[in-house]
Write a structure and sequence with these properties.
The complex is a heterodimer of chains A (about 270) and B (about 325).
Chain A lengths: L2 E5 L2 E3 L8 E4 L4 E4 L5 E3 L1 H17 L2 E7 L5 H4 L1 H5 L3 E5 L9 H15 L4 E5 L10 H9 L3 E11 L2 E8 L2 E7 L3 E5 L11 H9 L4 E2 L12 H4 L2 E7 L8 E2 L5 H14 L4
Parallel strand pairs in A: 1-6, 1-8, 6-7, 7-13, 8-12, 9-12
Antiparallel strand pairs in A: 2-5, 3-4, 9-10, 10-11
Helix pairs in contact in A: 4-5
Chain B lengths: L6 E4 L2 E2 L2 E2 L1 H17 L3 E7 L6 H6 L4 E6 L8 H15 L3 E5 L2 H13 L4 E5 L1 E4 L6 E7 L4 E7 L4 E5 L16 E4 L11 E8 L12 E5 L8 H12 L2 E4 L1 H5 L20 E5 L5 H4 L7 E6 L6 H4 L2 E4 L2 H17 L1
Parallel strand pairs in B: 1-4, 1-6, 4-5, 5-12, 6-11, 7-11, 14-15, 14-16, 16-17, 17-18
Antiparallel strand pairs in B: 2-3, 8-9, 9-10
Helix pairs in contact in B: 3-4, 5-9
Classes of the chains: A alpha/beta (about 270), B alpha/beta (about 325).
Bound molecules: flavin-adenine dinucleotide and adenosine monophosphate.
Chain lengths: ~270, ~325
């Protein structure tokens, strides 16, 4: 039965209306407005779903890892409520100021501490900074193969068979375990936690591991281990002003729009 | 330690031709190389691709490194990373550019980690800092709600670039360049994944990425059938139909029609947005559109902040009359 690890990140809801996010240029941070809730990054929920589907078919154990701070426990427990077996939080001031590389290093060290792993799942990208590197970094630190942007993950005769989304369709890929897989929305909706799952999740102990617990070298962590530098952060300017085309009826407005496009030589 | 010099573009080959993104990277790479007074090179990996080296030269490369090996026929992470690691160690480029494509997204991070450097993903702008001479990559973050400018001090400085963000140079077949063959050094046991099958979504008519007119439908369309009305409009205007993510997730249209941050990048002259709200992640895919037209029943929808012309109304009433009128205008 496969041992699985899923890496999930807690972020501000990326589907909050445009305008909910303000840029603090001095602090080089994006600040979410008061009404924006925290969520598990959407592709990471799909990564949990992918692991659960493997578990439904073959059994096994799912460990969920999340590195961060200011965790909202009801939010970050969601993978447990969906059916994952354990949740481990990675929290330490040494992790702060991390880039993709130092985050991947810390997660890889935590996965080594978990010890047994056949399948590791990540989201295709975290929906805050939209990078899409941490999964591949984990694979590189662990020295295992990786397949990105999966829409389907199955185990067939002890091997892993995946569908990888590409521009004009998908590829069917086969790989042995252990393997790191990043998951995309094409996988389908993640399951809703059932009440029983939510209650069981609320009772589970959630351990927190520090840099020392995972045996990480501090020079590789957080800002010290980062290779990228954010020089500047700014809000893009939008200058479009829309001319609303009117009419006595929707049909007339539509016809006027067509005329307008002709006038502007767009058709 | 060898000094890192030169701008290198990782080429992509699609159906035996140089991919448009590669020409764009060569155009953008040329400007960086000129700003630094360094040379521009391209890397071509694949099977039976040697003759494309002249193409890369015609689009601006001074040197082309060709790695031609049957083991490179399909993109696979292990083989492409291993070959690129070899090429980078041999040539020591200062800057390495890839496309934000199915290949670049997969190859660039893994290669950067292998080389112990860093990559800025999905850049829409590249420049050289006049003082530090470092590569600055500007990338949308938070689904397009903000932009970050990144750099790294390790070499090579890497970036992946969004399609249609950079201008290709006009093709010039009189350009001269040098072609250098490099052995792949691959052996099959190094490649841990196997491609069993490639399943292609057949495209009828013009490709979304290439279309000059794009009609895009959103969640408000409500069904697969409703997209036929968009097809009818596309036919009148000689355009292609795209979609936001919900119609793809709901199975109304194939996933390959998705436009946006995690879908296709389009850059048409005319972009007609029907029953979609204009989320930042969707708009990331059409920021290059020159004229956005919105049809939406909600006057507060964000799409009206992005559009040039709009009609507030139910698309079920607006669209047929719009298509009818256009048909007359276009034929008359
Ligand atoms: C990391 C990340 C990546 C993403 N990548 C993408 C991407 O690549 N592409 C993408 O599209 N999305 C992407 N999304 C999803 C995105 O955030 C939005 O959820 C999505 O774009 C919304 O699609 P929509 O505008 O069609 O739907 P909605 O936001 O639900 O808007 C529907 C609109 O239709 C209008 N409407 C309804 N009925 C009618 C009618 N009868 N007539 C006229 N108007 C009507 C409504 O007024 C509303 O404005 C991504 C999300 C995340 C978090
Ligand atoms: N802080 C984190 N904790 C746990 N997993 C993470 C974290 N950051 C990134 N990941 C995982 O790596 C994926 C890609 O992240 P990124 O490279 O930051 O876009 C995410 O979808 C998660 O699965």
């Amino acid at each position: 039965m496969p041992n699985m690890v899923v890496c999930v990140k807690q972020i501000a809801d990326p589907e909050a209306p445009a305008g909910s996010f303000k840029v603090d240029e001095a602090a080089k941070k994006v600040v979410a407005g008061a009404g924006v809730s925290q969520v598990v990054s959407p592709f990471d929920e799909q990564a949990v779903e992918a692991a659960l589907r493997v578990k439904d078919a073959h059994g096994g154990k799912i460990s969920v890892l999340s590195l961060g701070k200011d965790f909202v426990m009801d939010v970050i427990r969601k993978p447990l409520a969906m059916g994952a077996d354990e949740l481990i939080l990675l929290q330490d001031p040494a992790f702060e100021g991390a880039d993709s590389r130092s985050t991947a290093y810390a997660l890889a060290m935590a996965i080594k501490k978990i010890g047994e792993y056949d399948l590791i799942f990540c989201g295709r990208q975290a929906a805050d900074w939209d990078v899409g590197q941490v999964g591949l970094g984990i694979a590189e630190f662990l020295g295992i193969p990786s397949v990105t942007v999966a829409q389907k993950v199955e185990m067939v005769d002890g091997k892993v068979r995946l569908e990888r989304v590409v521009a004009d369709g998908y590829e069917v890929i086969e790989v042995s375990t252990p393997v790191l897989i990043t998951v995309s929305n094409e996988l389908g909706e993640p399951r809703y936690p059932k009440l029983k799952g939510i209650m069981a999740a609320a009772r589970k102990e959630v351990p927190t591991w520090t840099a020392q617990d995972i045996g990480a070298e501090t020079s590789q962590l957080g800002a010290a281990g980062a290779r990228t530098k954010l020089v500047k952060l700014f809000a893009p300017v939008k200058e479009a002003k829309c001319e609303i085309i009117e009419g006595e009826s929707p049909e007339e407005a539509a016809a006027n729009l067509a005329l307008k496009l002709r006038e502007a030589k767009l058709v | 330690m060898a000094e890192n010099k030169g701008v290198m573009v990782v080429g992509e080959v699609v159906e035996g031709k140089l991919a448009p993104i590669t020409m764009e990277l060569l155009g953008g790479g040329r400007a960086l190389a000129d700003a630094l007074g360094e040379e521009l090179s391209a890397v071509l990996m694949g099977s039976g691709i040697a003759e494309l080296a002249q193409e890369a030269i015609a689009f601006g490369a001074e040197k082309v490194y060709v790695i031609d090996d049957p083991l490179l026929a399909n993109y696979r992470t292990d083989s492409y990373v291993a070959v690129m690691e070899k090429v980078v160690k041999q040539v020591s480029p200062n800057i390495l550019l890839l496309g934000q494509t199915a290949i670049g997204r997969d190859l660039a991070p893994r290669l950067a980690f292998r080389l112990d450097t860093a990559v800025s993903m999905d850049c829409v702008e590249l420049s050289i800092d006049p003082e530090s001479k470092l590569l600055l990559g500007t990338r949308p973050v938070y689904g397009g709600n903000a932009r970050g400018v990144y750099c790294c001090e390790t070499r090579p400085q890497m970036a992946t670039v969004r399609s249609k963000a950079l201008e290709p140079l006009p093709r010039d077949d009189s350009r001269k360049g040098e072609v250098i063959n490099i052995e792949s050094g691959l052996d099959p046991s190094m490649i841990r994944t196997e491609v069993l099958e490639k399943v292609k979504e057949e495209v009828v008519g013009i490709k979304l990425e290439d279309a000059d007119v794009v009609i895009c439908g959103g969640r408000g369309m409500g069904s697969a059938e409703a997209f036929q009305d968009l097809e009818a409009l596309a036919k009148v205007l000689g355009g292609a139909v795209g979609a936001t993510r919900p119609p793809c997730d709901n199975g109304w249209v194939p996933a390959s029609l998705q436009v946006g941050l995690t879908g296709k990048i389009v850059g048409p002259t005319l972009y007609i947005a029907v029953a979609l709200s204009g989320s930042s992640q969707h708009m990331s895919g059409c920021s290059g559109a020159k004229n956005i037209i919105a049809i939406n029943k909600d006057p507060e929808a964000n799409i009206f902040k992005e559009a040039r012309f709009g009609v507030v109304g139910d698309y079920k009433k607006v669209l047929p009359a719009f298509t009818e009128k256009l048909k007359k205008l276009v034929s008359g």
